[in-house]
């Protein structure tokens, strides 16, 4: 065996052993102020770019930022109006509390919306900060055992959404809350499927009242290589008070792993029903520290 081949073979053995060590290690002693060592970190998983949340948590004592650099949304016709909205740097800051629990803070620092009525002279502009979402994720199983085909992972994700400016057209006007149950199934070495089911108790605006909506989504993902992956998704909200029905969207996108702690992504959601946004393209990134 030549020296370069021997070095490559040894490196491959070290990588396999290190991965096995991370999967089989007891990490229950690690928490926010006693971080999981780098050699025991799980492979970075993200809750973006698809709508479907993952059941995996960030390792204890580590922080993961998942950011939309820029996103554009064209809303459907409602009362003869069209709305074009841009959001910038919406970020989900995920903080690993224990090996199976994390705390999330989601905030949109700036957004703009332009509402145009049938009369082209009647155009309204609004801008400002978005709402603040507080979330917690509790992995019930699968964090450190999601390796072989047939493996599953399940979590609970309660959340509450808080208004920051009730009248800027960007932030929600009222407090909302609910819970999502994320489930993932590893179908093969390349394919996996994730499901979300949930409920939300919310109020859309001053003309509506609090009611319960149901959330559902399914996302198939395929790993083309160690760096490149794609996803294909359908997601919807049901029992809404929208006069045009319930919104359902079809989404797809691509992810590119620059390193083990940094990932780029881009995607687009397309409305399938009259109540859904017509189109929503976006680009973003995720980084772990």
How would you explain this protein's 3D organization?
- The N terminus is likely disordered.
- This protein has one domain: Porin, CATH 2.40.160.40.
- It has a twelve-stranded antiparallel barrel with strand order 1-2-3-6-7-8-9-10-11-12-13-14.
- Helices cover 8% and strands 52% of the residues.
- It is mostly beta strands and 289 residues long.
- The chain has one helix and 14 strands.
- The longest helix is centred in the first third of the chain and has 22 residues.
- The protein is globular, with a radius of gyration of 21 Å.
- A hairpin with an 8-residue loop joins strand 9 and strand 10.
Name the features:
1 helix, twelve-stranded antiparallel barrel, 14 strands, mainly beta, 289 residues, Porin
CATH architecture: Beta Barrel
Could you describe the largest sheet, including whether it forms a barrel? Answer: 12 strands, antiparallel, barrel
* Radius of gyration of CA atoms, rounded to a whole number: 21 Å
Alpha carbon gap, first and last residue: 39 Å
SS field, number of helical segments: 1
- Kindly report the average pLDDT value: 90
The total number of structural domains is: 1
Provide the succession of SSEs: HEEEEEEEEEEEEEE
- Coarse morphology: globular
SS class: mainly beta
Oligomer: single chain
The percent range for strand residues is over 45%
Identify the CATH homologous superfamily. Answer: monomeric porin ompg
Adjacency order of strands in the biggest sheet: 1-2-3-6-7-8-9-10-11-12-13-14
State the helical fraction.
under 10%
The CATH topology name reads: Porin
The CATH C-level class name: Mainly Beta
For the secondary structure, the number of strands is 14
